[in-house]
Amino acid sequence: MAAAYKLTYFNVTGLGEPVRLILSYGNIDFEDIRITFDDNWPSIKPTLPIPYGQLPIFEHAGKIAHQSLAICRYAAKQAKLVGSNDWEDLEIDAAADTINDFRLKFVDYYYEKDPKVKEPRKATLYKEMLPFYIEKFEKQIEKNNGYFAIGKLTWADLYFVGLLEILNFILGKDLTDGAPGLRGINEKVRAIPQIKAYLDKRPPTIR
Amino acid sequence: MAAAYKLTYFNVTGLGEPVRLILSYGNIDFEDIRITFDDNWPSIKPTLPIPYGQLPIFEHAGKIAHQSLAICRYAAKQAKLVGSNDWEDLEIDAAADTINDFRLKFVDYYYEKDPKVKEPRKATLYKEMLPFYIEKFEKQIEKNNGYFAIGKLTWADLYFVGLLEILNFILGKDLTDGAPGLRGINEKVRAIPQIKAYLDKRPPTIR
């Protein structure tokens, strides 16, 4: 029988990986469609039901959704990685949005083509943004019992772990070096049996 | 008696206004703290409990939250502007995230200081981003019975209307000109009695 859910993304970690981790955590069967670099993306793109030109897209019961954070939140509700009241969900959502703000600093630098713009952005990322966010993340994780929010494992943690590989790829080093809170989250999440099983079986990616 | 909620932002519309509109819609009493340009923001900032250096912040029952989208979603749950199942909420969340992506194109241009970077960004915003998003928004609104999602009024509509004033300020014109779907949402939301009452009593802002 076909899986109830279908995720379409490229064969990289990036914005698809947090969704894959959350679905795997919940033992939710999904079709993991990966467009590879051998595929002709410009010719495939018009054949896909992409609402705003961007992947991932997520399909279920004949309906199509986009926006990776929104998909993660939906998947997290099914996987029981959300809070137990509205304020807890606010804290989890705010943590995920802040991790996304952090990600956008990487994206702004990495995808810039003009070297005159790219170099100062790289300097700002390394010298200002990384220490600013990592210091605050560490304090937040310390206050939250080793997690991003509400003192226990939530989808904000899986969102971070899912993005970590591409952030480290862009950075050229492991950003959890010297950040025991972030490192701890990465290790704890990767050790969860369902997550470990997914990581062991996923196809290799270049980033 | 003090209001149960307290929102702290600057005396502009911006990221605070969607929260103000959603709370007003729900008749939820809140303290509407506005830091003005006469206040000395750099001296006030260290006195506020700001988790990641940015406003708005939102306080309730001794707890503090940040991230405007997360605050909007929380407020929308209290104001009953959310969906009736997880997939509907996914569609609303995706609409709000897409409106936020659109906003970020304005921010990327407006706050850039280097004229050599700013000018091409302005050109991209006007010639590519505006027509791209507006065409897609119009189609989405047409499919959704005159609203952004699930065929009825949700917080995604109030999120758009709350941001519209600052987007128009940056653009120097009304982006709903020639976009009947977006214009219709703005008019419908502003005509809701609780929203109209808020708009009539809010302090004047420069943008």
Rounded to the nearest angstrom, the radius of gyration of chain A is 17 Å
**Greatest chain-chain interface?**
A-B, 34 and 34 residues
In helices, the fraction of residues of chain A equals: 55-70%
Q: Give the DSSP E fraction of chain A (strand runs of 2 or more residues).
A: 5-15%
Q: Please mark out the parts of chain A with pLDDT under 50 across 5 or more consecutive residues, or reply none.
A: none
H and E string of chain A: EHEHEEHHHHHH
Q: Regarding quaternary structure, how should these chains be classified?
A: homodimer
Shape of chain A: globular
Give the N-to-C terminal Cα separation of chain A: 31 Å
Residue-averaged pLDDT of chain A, rounded?
95
Number of helices of chain A: 8
Count of beta strands of chain A: 4
The major β-sheet of chain A equals: 4 strands, mixed
Question: What strand order characterises the main sheet of chain A?
Answer: 2-1-3-4
Characterization of this structure:
Two copies of one chain form a homodimer. In chain A, 57% of the residues lie in helices and 10% in strands. With 207 residues, chain A is an alpha+beta fold. A four-stranded mixed sheet of chain A has the order 2-1-3-4, covered by helices on one side. The relative contact order of chain A is 0.15. The model of chain A has no long low-confidence stretch (mean pLDDT 95). Chain A binds chain B through residues 51-53, 60-61, 63, 65-67, 69-71, 73-74, 77-78, 86-87, 89-91, 93-94, 97-98, 101, 104, 114, 116-117, 132-133, 136, 140, and chain B through 51-53, 60-61, 63, 65-67, 69-71, 73-74, 77-78, 86-87, 89-91, 93-94, 97-98, 101, 104, 114, 116-117, 132-133, 136, 140.
